[in-house]
Amino acid sequence: MNTVARSERWSGYALLTVMAIAVVIPFLSVFLASLQPAGTPVVGLSWPERWNWDNYETAWSVAGFSDLIRHSLVIAVGVVPACLVLAALAGYALGTMKLPGGNAVAAFFIAGLTIPVELIVVPLYFDLRALGLTNSYLGVILVEIALFMPFSVFWMRTHFLSTPTSLVEAARIDGASSATILVRILLPLARPSLMTLGLLVFMWSWNQFLLVLVLIQDTTKHTAPAGLGFFVGQNSTDIPTLAAGTIIVMLPILILFVVFQRSFIAGLLQGAMKG
Amino acid sequence: MGSRPPVRSGEARRRWRGYVYVLPAFAVYFAFAVLPALHTAYLSLFEWDGVTLGEWVGLGNYAEIFQDSILRRSVFNALVLVVFFSLVPIVLGLLSAGLLARYRRPGMGAYRFLFMLPQVVPLVAVGVTWRWLYGDDGVVNQTLRAVGLDSVARAWLGDFDAALIAVGLVGTWVLSGLCMMLFLSGVQKVEPSLYEAARIDGAGPVREFVSVTLPHLRGELAVAMTVTTVAALASFDIVYVTTNGGPGEQTTVPGLLVYRLAFSEGKVGLAAALAVVLGVLILAIVYLINRLSRDRT
Lengths: 275, 297
Hints:
The structure holds 2 protein chains of 2 kinds.
Chain A: H1 3-33, H2 54-62, H3 65-96, H4 102-111, H5 117-130, H6 137-161, H7 165-173, H8 178-189, H9 191-207, H10 210-215, H11 224-234, H12 239-259, H13 261-274
Helix pairs in contact in A: 2-12, 3-6, 3-9, 3-11, 4-6, 6-9, 7-8, 9-13, 11-12
Chain B: H1 7-17, H2 19-43, E1 46-47, E2 55-56, H3 60-67, H4 69-100, H5 108-120, H6 123-133, H7 139-146, H8 163-187, H9 192-200, H10 205-216, H11 218-233, H12 237-242, H13 254-263, H14 268-296
Antiparallel strand pairs in B: 1-2
Helix pairs in contact in B: 2-14, 3-14, 4-8, 4-10, 4-11, 5-8, 8-11, 11-14, 13-14
């Protein structure tokens, strides 16, 4: 290669590296702040004199992040399996059967990708309150399932569209019912798609803020992000404890991300492509 | 038992039967997303405090949105945020994709991991982190002071001129990685022979980018624009945590006002109308981007 190309390649890497540093510094900054002695003023990026993990204990027990994490998990455990099951069923029918008007129904689901929480949250509060579903996890769970359904159905439909039709045809000729075909043949093959969808839905559920803020006004029932948002208003002066709380709220999703990097990134990129 | 139904109608019934599988998903989606959206549109036609009986005002709430300076300001702010959430990340992404277009890239996995990090953590946590970075003693001011720019240092989120830009840059931080990865993965799909051909024709790096790389990224470009623009328009989490709209109304966005109007100011109808405006804006922009990107291919 000539020198021009080489300098170009290096400028490419230089740009990527500068950006990588810019991405890391905020994380590093909040992490280092979380290790400073509680209640002390912290200046920028400063290495703690000794690693002080007490803030995590304080945030976990005193500031109540253990409860907040638990509430978030309860909601995610309600949302993720329901999304997977409902989307697999709908995606199966819309992807492999020639339903009359099937394309229109699929399009109606996809249109839902443009619904922001802001558009639905106001009447939801009043409607769910009338049903006794405010300050309840069930209410949040149902709405989150509905919000994530457009993407989930689209994702599973795309998956089933790409499975070879000969597989389904052969089973049908053997006399298998549509339910048998789904459970015995297609679902085992769909495992990677289901797992990626599960990770994405878990992430969206975990990160949900506005919806929880409105539907769960009882702060003792808040989820992790809502609790953190509330906590920052109350304790904005105690930076180390606040930083520890922030890390605690990020941690579950970061762990999943580290473990399932490939599925996560592929899902985010493909998901964006399909959205 | 009667006679067997004709084959055709039996066949038709069998085709409809597949809807049994679609029904549960459809029911939840319809009841908890579509109906509320329609209900919002209905509520937007009333003046209602959430408690007493509402009063029909037709399109009055919409008229108020166009007249009220704070409401107009929020829509304007959201459009400014589009520059930082969408335009800047896309330019950065194109720049890096352009620079790296023609090479096999060892070590991309590590970059990819880092760039996607801001995508996966809750925006509330991002907001809290940046609140601290932008604070008096935060990293931003620390850096400025270290390089002798003491006069520039300030409480960024409380500064009338700087707050909106500061909030916008948080969006840049969150969304640049996604744009980059989209473009880099798009570039990897380009046939290397196309670059060779361009080079034989004597194309320089800029020419090569314009006539080989860019046309191949059209689909990714449309996607990046859609995702980031929607993120900018519906930017509630970051703003709520960092500035809550302040100072003054410098960083107010529609999402914040929908929340505030409906749940602390008792103007439910007005909040609903603003939500509808926001929803229509998003729908229009998504439609436009997809339309434009499809026309050209």
